[in-house]
């Protein structure tokens, strides 16, 4: 397989996902798995707007995800106006793809609707103040967003998640007019990829590092990380990308200290001010 011939068969897609013939294609396969394995983040978009009704279809896919106790504790803000996308790009560390993609979805952990609904019936909602409910809402938002991502990719669109929405969460909340109890967990650029910039499938860790059978076991981890280092070296060489250090070094730098969190080291205090007491 070369970079000009995208992986399409089960064997090719599995090879691309692990950067090696590590997982043989078995008997099970489906169109959905094929689409999921073809995922790559897109950071270069055509200006072409999405077709009529596409946004609503993506939201229907998002709403089809499982949701804790059917509470549906998430919402999404669809931002299409260039000026607002520009301001959000700035708040997310000046990420150009937010300006470029025609649609920017901001996925919210949203407990505010439950608070309003309970209040309208004169019922208490003190449980919303607990960390558990924040986590529940963030999980719900992530599951919904990933369904929308898969749906967009199945329509030939590309996406990239934007954790940069958490760099300055109170400014993002002000920009989007969020009520207390709603928090932008991440954003997502959606649009048609620039053809000749089609990003390659990025290898993931060998399954020996992430799949544990019956009980957690780190015995195979060092070898798996070594193998992954070699797979990523080959990937970056093929992509003609110069990256300093291997995945372990790169990832360890990313978690070295609060200064690596792009301002998110103060997130807990921000959450308190945004209506999440996290009891
Ligand atoms: C929650 C989340 C936040 C992310 N934030 C950003 C971001 O702010 N900017 C960006 O360019 N990519 C972002 N990404 C994309 C990841 O860098 C990307 O998924 C990862 O490197 C794997 O590459 P792939 O998606 O092409 O397989 C984010 C991904 C996730 C899941």
Q: Can you tell me the CATH class of the largest domain?
A: Alpha Beta
Along the chain, the helix and strand elements come as: HHHEHHEHHEHEHHHH
CATH superfamily of the largest domain: NADH Oxidase
* Envelope shape: globular
Roughly what percent helix?
40-55%
By oligomeric state, this entry counts as single chain
Q: What is the strand content?
A: 5-15%
Low confidence ranges: none
Question: How many DSSP-defined strands?
Answer: 4
What's the main sheet like?
4 strands, antiparallel
Arithmetic mean pLDDT: 95
At CATH's second level, what is the architecture of the largest domain?
3-Layer(aba) Sandwich
Number of helices: 12
Instruction: Round the Cα radius of gyration to an integer and report it.
Output: 20 Å
* Main β-sheet, spatial strand arrangement: 1-2-4-3
Commentary on this structure:
With 279 residues, the protein is of the alpha+beta class. Helix content is 43%, strand content 10%. The chain has 12 helices and 4 strands. It has a 4-stranded antiparallel beta sheet with strand order 1-2-4-3. The longest helix is centred in the middle third of the chain and has 24 residues, at 131-154. It starts with 9 loop residues before the first helix and ends in a 6-residue tail after the last helix. The mean pLDDT is 95. Flavin mononucleotide binds at residues 39-41, 43, 95, 160-164, 186, 199, 202. Residues 39-41, 43, 95, 160-164, 186, 199, 202 line the site of flavin mononucleotide.
Structure keywords:
single chain; 279 residues; alpha+beta; NADH Oxidase; 2 domains; 12 helices; 10% strand; binds flavin mononucleotide
